[in-house]
Amino acid sequence: MGLSHRGACGYGNLFSTGYGTNTAALSSVLFNDGFGCGSCYQIRCTGASACYRGSPIITVTATNLCPPNWAQPSDNGGWCNPPRVHFDMSKPAFMKIADWHAGIVPVMYRRVPCPVRGGIRFLLQGNGYWLLAFVMNVGGGGDVARMWVKGSNTGWISMSQNWGASYQAFSRLGGQSLSFKIMSYTTSNTIIASDVAPSNWNVGLTYEATVNFH
Fold first, then answer.
1. H or E element at residue 212
2. Does pTM top 0.85 for this prediction?
């Protein structure tokens, strides 16, 4: 899968990266230029005949952007146009709260901690002079504000956001074990994942830390 096919958050195949089907694309006001990637929401259908009895609640993870459709009015087709809050849910997720044939239903929602298992995961790409890390399975707020990388022969190097939940550093880091420092966008808490990738790390592989936000 090429980098351009990894979606607006960079998570790629949502099954192989552990997000499954309880996912949603966010309208741009929630997507927040990619800083909304990985955030989690409880959603329930309300006030519509298509809502299932008992108003079941589902928790979804934000994994993509629902782009604006400026050719359509925001109340008839342009559901993701600013300043609307909209969740474009996967079909399996939608079917847990309402009749799929309704297409659009009103919902109540709230941010919640992300129910992840295990440590933060880093999918590494790049070359000898450029490291690109896709950050996945982030607990707590689920989102990332800033990130740093440290090779076994370097100090901490500030990484810049590439797109979505991917961060890059223009440094020679081959042949060094890699540690990452991540700052949560929601809480500004910082966590250090030491020696996540061994010195013989390779691009295209995913490495899991032993730490995560809670």
1. none
2. yes
Tokens (6 digits) for 32 = 């927040």
Q: Which is it for strands 57-66 and 40-45: parallel, antiparallel or unpaired?
A: antiparallel
Tens digit of each residue's pLDDT (9 = 90 or more) over 133-169: 999 999 999 999 999 999 999 999 999 999 999 999 9
Q: What is the DSSP string of 175-202?
A: TS-EEEEEE-TTT--EEEEEEEE-TT--
Q: Residues with Cβ < 8 Å from 36, sequence gap 6 or more?
A: 26, 30, 62, 143
* DSSP assigned state of 73: -
Q: Are 46 and 34 in contact (CB under 8 A)?
A: no
CA–CA distance, 12 with 8 (Å, rounded to integer) = 9
What DSSP element (H or E) covers 118? none
31 Rama class: left (phi>0) / alpha (psi -120 to 50) / beta: alpha
The whole-chain average pLDDT of the chain stands at 94
> Residue 45: which residues within 8 A CB-CB, separation 6 or more?
51, 52, 55, 97, 98, 105, 106, 107
CB 98, CB 105: distance < 8 Å = yes
